[in-house]
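Database export, one record per block. Field names are fixed; values are copied verbatim from the stored entry.
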Amino acid sequence: MTAAPTPTYYWEDFAAGSVREFGGTLVNKDDVIRFASEFDPQPFHLDEDAARASLFGGLAASGWHTCAMVMRMMCDAYLLDSASLGSPGLEKLQWLKPVYPGDVLRVRMTILESRPMNSKPHVGLIRSQWEAIARRRDGREDVVLQMEGWGMFRRRNPGEAGPAA
């Protein structure tokens, strides 16, 4: 059995006020339809004619699909190379604007708060805001999703105060 690699990122690497941008996922029409077919089969996610007649004006990705794409970008950017211990949940989730095939999504993560966990001193908590930003085919950019929630990370140095704000 091979030992797990040493993580690059621990709780100490997520200082309050820090901002990271990552990603660059192209939203694919076939993926939008495939996700919706399985998880959110509303007509405006599945059928272009129905979508044109909807408030969206065209085929739009499910908000849950957008969340899944953001999660994948988070995993690729830092979570899979971190001492992540999961999350106790989200406090806020907003789908601000539709996401369309052809959009390119990226994520901006802002660390809002960072503190040790009182009951488990080897664990640090971070509260983050994630914004998904869509670059449209015409070049403009829109914030299309905003989430806030907590992450739990193993501490590199459990006896120390933690990251500087």
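Remark 1: The helical segments are 29-39, 43-46, 48-52, 63-77.
Remark 2: The first helix runs from residue 29 to 39.
End of record.
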